[in-house]
Amino acid sequence: MNLLFEKNERPRFERGLSFTLLFKCLLCFCIFQQNINARDFLLIHEKVGTTLDLEEKVHYRLFPEIYNFIDAQFFEVSPETIAIQIRTWSEAGEVISLRYIKPYDFYCLRAVIEQQPTLSEEERQNIRKRFQPLFTDRFLAEVPPEAYCRVRTLDKRKFAGIFYRVKDNYLQLWIDKKVVSINKNNLAKIKYWSDYRQQEWPVYFSLFTGGIIAYSAAAYLTGALNLLPADAYLFKLGSAALGVVAGYQAAPIINEWTLPSVTIEFRKNRIKRLDTIHKTFYTLRKMKDRTWQK
């Protein structure tokens, strides 16, 4: 009986021990992961800060072998080792890699930055002009998979479809169950929505607004033209119907305008990447500039 008792109880003890060991391992992993996320990045230089971006990489001539560079940050692993966390882009998305150098190499990098002038905003814009294909690839790499895109090319052609991929020198979209390739050098503007969906309220809003505006305009015209009551009634009814149809046609435009989107403009060798809010202010600023020019 004692033997049977020992055989039955021993597995329970082992299961309890295994659960405790697993819990401790998970706890240690969480603490380790938190320490990684809470790491303090080193100040690269007063001219740069803690993050080296693409324009600064080009200006200070750093990491010349990395063509798909996004940014880099440095943190201390030990007194003898410094790690470089480098973000790059690829067709599959963002890639994070680590390199390890000695403190002496880090000081040499700081000396290279120190010997060169500070990167000004004017020079930053000049870099973007000179390295336009590089920034084109960088911004296109940030388009999420299966995002709904509207594309306009330099030769005034327009495309609307689902983002597929960037391959070689072409942007590819799914349009009517076919893959359409667009040359990256021919891009004028891209607008994409990460979470494109048809909302209901823009449809009702546009139908109601279109009908009210058309009916009000018709009522004003009937009074001005002194139409007979029967003719005025038919005229107002027909105008309201046309207003409802026009509102229905405008519903997709209102829907797209209200959804969060990102716009990339390729104009005059100057690339801009704007989200919805910045796009609004950018458009208003352009309108103001055109008004002053007139």
Secondary-structure blueprint of this entry?
Blueprint: H1 2-37, E1 52-53, H2 54-59, E2 69-78, E3 81-90, E4 93-101, H3 103-114, H4 121-130, H5 132-141, E5 148-153, E6 158-167, E7 170-175, E8 178-183, E9 187-193, H6 201-225, H7 229-258, E10 262-267, E11 270-275, H8 276-293
Antiparallel strand pairs: 1-2, 2-3, 3-4, 5-6, 5-9, 6-7, 7-8, 9-10, 10-11
Helix pairs in contact: 6-7
What does this entry look like structurally?
The protein is α+β, with helices and mostly antiparallel strands and 294 residues long. The chain folds into 3 domains: 52-130; 135-197 and 259-293, SH3 type barrels; 201-258, no CATH class. It has 8 helices and 11 strands. The chain has helices at 2-37, 54-59, 103-114, 121-130, 132-141, 201-225, 229-258, 276-293, and strands at 52-53, 69-78, 81-90, 93-101, 148-153, 158-167, 170-175, 178-183, 187-193, 262-267, 270-275. The strands form 2 sheets. Strands 8-7-6-5-9-10-11 form a 7-stranded antiparallel beta sheet, with helices on both faces. The chain has a 4-stranded antiparallel beta sheet with strand order 1-2-3-4. Helix 6 (201-225) runs antiparallel to helix 7. The longest helix has 36 residues, at 2-37. The N and C termini lie far apart (104 Å). Mean pLDDT is 78; it is low at 1-17, 31-38 and 288-294.
